[in-house]
């Protein structure tokens, strides 16, 4: 009997899996709760033969070869639970890529800054290796399987805790673990579990790059926070206006770049001062990613920053810290809200909120935000983002900063953080 693979969840990743598996199987099972899913029509247009939402009996499972869950699918999903009980093989698109790709692989994970780091590293590597095919892939954009048939020399792979947790064949030349803060507590049982999942990439990487807060038992690992002199970053005129968290992302990228240059025998790596100055010159042409502490300009003397990608409290704290570097205390008006994803509020963590003038909260968990932030700053409950924006405009004056940094997921009211950020940008544009 010819066994059939089943894909659980048909987002971008599931769609790329379907196209890949279709070349190797006559039929596919797809389990997708939304029968109006856009990708289902795409699969039909491509002539891909599949059965939607098959009966989940043990008899059906005997005909299944492998289960491929999409990243957003919980490990507690009924299909995965039954698969585990019946010892059905479970793989991910990441597993397929690692098994079949010969690229030099750099894995990047962490709570905040993954996309920025892989983008910076891609930019830098392309400027030093103009003859190589180098791409930032994974969560940053196109799924990894989209690049499997492309002969990449270096693949810089952004990977989430969901993907790490589900994958069993990670094996990279370089692993970069950025900051690890509380996030996705609606998915993971504890911060400890979340940290351990993130740290997994270092266990399966030949070269390990992290910081002192993420130190694991491995004897050899590069601490990107201490690798280069701090004075260089504080004094360099090209970096002075950068948000502090982006400087940290740059440091991680620079350590990876330096080690790759050395591995490839490039002379640029010999003199550290020369290397740093050359790298910073090259990074000056880097275009910062949209919705990540994105400066929108000034209207009526008021500055606006779109930091919609800040989907956890720690990301928002970094935004406040960066904002307070350029503004006096009491000149920041913060807009936040959405789905907190079961994040905890620690009073010592919330002290930076004292530097903001007022906070406007909206969305699913606005009452939780209001109650926890009220001891630290003035907080106003709002109906939605539009209401929060209008209220902030009515109170801010020339010299102030209005900062959208939600500290929450957007999915309670928006399709994603991009839609949320775009709405904020449209409101600014209308002023």
Main traits of this protein?
431 residues; six-stranded parallel sheet; Protein-Tyrosine Phosphatase, Chain A; 3 domains; Rossmann fold; six-stranded mixed sheet; UDP-N-acetylmuramoyl-L-alanine:D-glutamate ligase
What is the topological layout?
Layout: E1 4-8, H1 12-22, E2 28-31, H2 38-45, E3 50-52, H3 58-61, E4 64-69, H4 78-86, E5 89-90, H5 93-100, E6 104-109, H6 114-128, E7 134-138, E8 154-158, H7 161-166, E9 172-177, H8 191-203, E10 205-210, E11 222-223, H9 230-235, H10 244-263, H11 272-283, E12 294-299, E13 302-306, H12 313-326, E14 332-337, E15 358-362, H13 366-373, E16 378-381, H14 385-395, E17 401-404, H15 417-429
Parallel strand pairs: 1-2, 1-4, 2-3, 4-5, 6-8, 6-9, 7-8, 9-10, 10-11, 13-17, 14-15, 14-17, 15-16
Antiparallel strand pairs: 12-13
Describe this structure in words.
It is a single chain. This protein is α/β, with parallel strands linked by helices and 431 residues long. It folds into three domains: 88 residues, 3-Layer(aba) Sandwich (Rossmann fold), CATH 3.40.50; 183 residues, 3-Layer(aba) Sandwich (UDP-N-acetylmuramoyl-L-alanine:D-glutamate ligase); 136 residues, Protein-Tyrosine Phosphatase, Chain A, CATH 3.90.190.20. The chain has 15 helices and 17 strands. Strands 7-8-6-9-10-11 form a six-stranded parallel sheet, with helices on both faces. Strands 12-13-17-14-15-16 form a six-stranded mixed sheet, sandwiched between helices. It has a five-stranded parallel sheet with strand order 3-2-1-4-5, sandwiched between helices. It is globular and about 70 Å long. The model has no long low-confidence stretch (mean pLDDT 88).
């Amino acid at each position: 009997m010819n066994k059939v693979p089943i894909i659980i969840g048909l987002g971008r990743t599931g769609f790329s899996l379907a196209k890949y598996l279709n070349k190797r199987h006559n039929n596919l099972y797809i389990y997708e709760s939304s029968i109006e899913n856009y990708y289902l029509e795409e699969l039909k247009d491509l002539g891909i033969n599949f059965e939607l939402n098959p009966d989940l009996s043990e008899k059906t499972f005997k005909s299944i070869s492998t289960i491929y869950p999409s990243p957003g699918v919980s490990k507690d999903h009924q299909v995965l639970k039954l698969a585990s009980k019946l010892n059905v093989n479970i793989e991910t698109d990441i597993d397929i890529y690692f098994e079949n790709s010969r690229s030099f692989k750099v894995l990047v994970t962490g709570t905040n800054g993954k996309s920025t780091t892989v983008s910076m590293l891609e930019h830098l590597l392309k400027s030093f290796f103009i003859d190589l095919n180098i791409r930032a892939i994974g969560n940053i954009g196109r799924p990894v399987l989209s690049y499997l048939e492309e002969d990449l020399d270096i693949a810089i792979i952004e990977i989430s805790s969901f993907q790490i947790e589900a994958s069993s064949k990670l094996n990279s030349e370089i692993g970069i673990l950025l900051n690890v803060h509380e996030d996705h507590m609606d998915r993971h049982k504890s911060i400890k579990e979340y940290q351990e999942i993130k740290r997994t990439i270092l266990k399966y990487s030949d070269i390990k790059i992290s910081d002192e807060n993420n130190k694991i038992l491995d004897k050899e690992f590069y601490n990107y926070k201490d690798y280069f002199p701090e004075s260089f970053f504080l004094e360099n005129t090209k970096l002075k206006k950068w948000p502090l968290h982006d400087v940290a992302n740059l440091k991680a990228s620079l350590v990876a770049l330096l080690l790759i240059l050395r591995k490839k025998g490039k002379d640029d790596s010999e003199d550290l001062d020369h290397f740093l100055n050359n790298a910073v010159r090259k990074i000056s042409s880097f275009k910062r990613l949209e919705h990540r502490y994105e400066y929108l300009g000034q209207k009526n003397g008021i500055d606006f920053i779109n930091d919609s990608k800040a989907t956890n409290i720690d990301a928002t704290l970094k935004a406040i810290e960066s904002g307070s570097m350029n503004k006096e205390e009491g000149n920041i008006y913060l807009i936040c809200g959405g789905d907190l994803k079961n994040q905890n509020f620690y009073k010592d963590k919330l002290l930076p909120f004292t530097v903001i003038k007022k906070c406007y909260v909206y969305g699913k968990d606005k009452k939780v935000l209001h109650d926890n932030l009220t001891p630290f700053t003035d907080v106003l409950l709002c109906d939605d983002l539009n209401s929060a924006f209008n209220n902030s405009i009515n109170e801010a004056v020339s010299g102030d900063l209005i900062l959208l940094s939600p500290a929450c997921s957007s999915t309670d009211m928006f399709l994603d953080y991009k839609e949320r950020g775009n709405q904020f940008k449209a409101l600014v544009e209308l002023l």
